[in-house]
Each structure stands twice: as structure tokens, then as C-alpha cells.
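job 3f2a | input accepted
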Amino acid sequence: MLSDLLPDSVRERVLEQITPTKEEVQNQKRVIKRLTSVLAKQAESCEYPYSFIDAQGSTGRKQTQLRGASDIDLFVGLRPEDYPDVLDQPQQDRHQAVDSLMNNLVDEWFAPAIAHLDVEKVQRAFSQHPFLSLRTQGLDVDILGCFDIDADTLASQGPITAVDRTVHHSRYVSEHLTRKKREDARILKSFVRAGHAYGDTCAVGRMGLTGVSLELMVVDAPNLDSAFYKLQHLDTEPLDPLKRTLSDLRKVPAFREDYVFVIDPTDVSRNVASSFSPRSYRWIQHRTARFRDFLASSDQEAIVNELIEAPIPDEDLPKWLRPHSFACEFVSDGTTHYTILRDKMHRMAKKLQTEMTNERTGEPRFGEVLTEVYFRDDLYALGLLIEHPIITPTYFRRGPPVHLETAAAEFTSAHPEAMMVDGYLCSEERREWTRANDMIEDFLGKNPIEGLSQVAKQSVLTKQVLNVLYRYVLPIEPQFHERMTRVKPRQ
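job 3f2a | predicted structure (491 res):
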């Protein structure tokens, strides 16, 4: 008998592995209770009135957390009417005023409250506004300020901070989850985690799929099969309470840059999926199609393996691909939150990719370049796959067409050796770089990231980031994959 999508035996086996133990849940509740208590006590000596201190997210009201992969988001709700000096400011000044308020909450309330607890890795972090990040009792914890806004005000006027919606998400999801749907949410989240494309620590792309987006798919779906369908077809069939088409949504100015759509049922002007990296989604879409194939073949071991997270492989790349690869590793000094370092690494990778692809004159350099960033704890790895790792010392720079007499004369004056090729003037230029590795090392030396230091002795992370590119990224880059496999020797 099938349970919507999975054989009953597979469903039970998977749930047994991904559902948190009673001890885990009890530990989470103890940590939440202890932190809530010290925050409430510290509030007595602070001049910051508040309306609630409550855990949100999967370990809070929703209870959709996975075994061994849970963290705590503790929200401190502020009543807007208690902070008129901040919120009555002109719109152009209000963001900075809210920033300053959240900074003060961290400095004068949150940090002093936890100062005498058994905590580590205490850091001021920043998303839209500052918050406090720490680790205690084996759990990562974020303590965030938000504004306590009722649902009608949120729908009509929008939030004050981005996280003001979280309380409403938690309430909406928890009210629509039956026991079976809660299990389905765990299975869908575990599937995405198994693809290493989940949340802000994903290995494929900068930002993976979020827990609340997957929960909303489950809420909207009659069964698990339908939830997986929604996940696989999100790029053509948006999830929207108003039933707008993809074309309709792309006409909304705020949505024009978004790749896929999961519209917030508590605030239909917001796309919950706006942060998803296209690469993260396309990889999960690819895995979902592969998962369907395994289901059709009734290969139970393969089905389970697709649903349970395992470490990224750390095997050597195939010999034919190694000359086209490069990887390096950095270590954090612990002063900067991982999200900031992650974003800086991705920006650096993007800049490097751009400079490697073309010469300064616009002509091709090392061809197409794929980059990826993978991090764990205090280690950060950068990986690259390079179409042409070694290139000729010179290239032909194309100038203006010969019929543009003035431009052609100027080009010939600057390049007396210019020749005509296919109706254009061209000059032979000497390249600055002929070996990709040399250019990368020079670039890294000239573009350091504050808080990170490059290390000579590399860990397993270096092999893992290359495996991410080989196993997860290449399959969803078909043109690059085809060009790369041309260099693969015949077996």
C-alpha cells in the first residue's frame, strides 16, 4: 500500500530517522525556557517595553524540526505604540532608527541577559537589522527583535521589519498542519537538506530553499505527492493564494527579479521564495525528477538515500576533470557572522568569475567558469571549474569595422600592426594571464576578505566543494557539461 507517494515501510523508515528524539525536543524546550526567563528578568532593568518573548520557526509553535538539524529563533516582540520616537520618523530615516533600536536591544538587553549562561560563539549578526547569535547546549540560537503587528495591519500596511511576518507564518502553518502534514513537511524538508540546498548554509548556490516555503507547499497540497509536484514545477506554476499566473506575478515591480514564487498567505505582497538562488532551485528540481525515477523503479534503498542527508562526498575528481579545477580554503577568525562571510565569499567568486571569463577588451579569456562556495564551522572553501585552464599567450582583439573610417583611422593609429579580418580591424594583443591558477592566486592576494585568512593546509572541505561542482552543479549546466565532457577520454 502507498501512503500518497512513499511505500508505508519507506515512509516509516524515513520518519524514524528524521523525527527528533524526545530528548532533543526536551533539550530545545529547556533552552527556550531558560533564555526566555533571563531575557524577561533582564527586561525589568531595561527601558524596553515588550509584548512577548517566544520561539518561532520549526522548534517553536510549528514543531517541524528535523533530528540533529535544529536551531532556535527566539523573538522579542515590541509594541509599535511604545516606540513612537522611532516609528514616527520620516520614511527615509526610519530604517536607520530601527537599526539603532535593534543595536541597543542587543547591547543593553540581549547580551547582558545571557552573559552568565553557558554559551559560546556569541556574535552580533545582521540580516535586515542587528540581532544576537550564540550557541548553547549544542543548539544554534538567534535572539531577534521584531514588532508585534496584528494580521490586518500587516496585510494593509506591511511590516516594519522583515521578521515581523515570522510570527504570523508560524501561526498560519501550525494552524494548518495535521499530524500527517507535519510528517510530510519533515519529509519534504529532509529531501531538500539531503540535496544540500536548504536555507542559508546551503552548498549549492548562495541561498537555498527555506523551511517555511516548503511548509507552505505542504499546507497547500492535499498529499505528499502533490507537495513534491509543487516543488518540481514551481518555476512554471507559482504558489499564490490569489491564483495569479507566472506572467501576472512578473508584472509586479517588487517581483521582477524573482526566479520562483511562493507568495506569503499572510502578506500577499511578499514572495517567500524571493531569496532562493536559481542554482539551488534548479538542482532541487533536477533531484525531484530523479527521485520520481527511483519511485517508479521501486528501488527502496535509492528512495531512502534521496530523503536522508549524508555528507557531501570527498572523493577525488575524475582524472579528466582535475586539470580544469581549482579550490582553496579560508579560516574565519571568529569575529564575523557566517552569513556576512558567506555573502562576501560569493561576491568575490562572482567577481573572479567575471574577470576570468573575458579579457579587459571583451574577448574570451579562460572560457566559461563555474564557481561555488561551501562552508562549515569556521572553514570556507572556494571551488572553480574552468573551461580552458591554459590559453595562448596572445589573442586577437577586434576593433571597429573598416567602413567606419574615423574609428578605423583611430584604431590603426593606436595599433599600426592592425590587420583586417572579416571586415573588421584586428590587433594581436599579449595576454596578462595564460594559466588560470596563476590568475586566481593573484586575484585572491589582491582581494582579501576581512575576517578570513587563506590556509595552505586544506581540509576535506576543499574536496567537497569540488564534488559540489562536479556532482550537483554540472548536471544542471548542460551546455558547460557538454563542453567539458569533450575533453573526457573515451573509456
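job 3f2a | The chain is about 45% helix and 20% strand.
job 3f2a | closed
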